[in-house]
Amino acid sequence: MHRLIAVVIVLCAAVPVHAQSDAVFDGVIAGERVTISFDELSKRAPLAAGEDFVVENLGRDEHTSHHIVSIRNREVPHRHDHHDLVVVMLRGDGAMLMGDQERPVGPGSILYVPRGTNHAFRNTSDQPAVAYAIYSPAFDPSDRVTTGPETED
To answer: What distance in Å separates the CA atoms of residue 138 and residue 30, rounded to the nearest whole number?
Structure first.
């Protein structure tokens, strides 16, 4: 997992935030090289009218799974006991709760959420926020444990 985090940080840090249209995801998923612009990634998980949260699976292998996540409002606070999570914000602004602290995040932000950490994203934009998420090991939906209220404020 540490090697994965280092690769994501190097790839994202090499591209200035103001050059988002030139930024790309470039990696090997399930044995195939995949190169997708950040702009294209941002369009991979569109929200329909009335939808608040959508996840689009990009691919998985034995060690990781890759997803595009769009959020109109907020996530319910939760944790993953068996998965580490790396999130790269592609579009939108918001606040990320980790543990008992919430901090602002925006395009280009890289978030590392170790397994067992309570977390939730809250969108502060007037448009859906979009992020690229990597789980290690590959995501299993049964490893999502709600830790906060199911309803919004």
So the answer is: 11
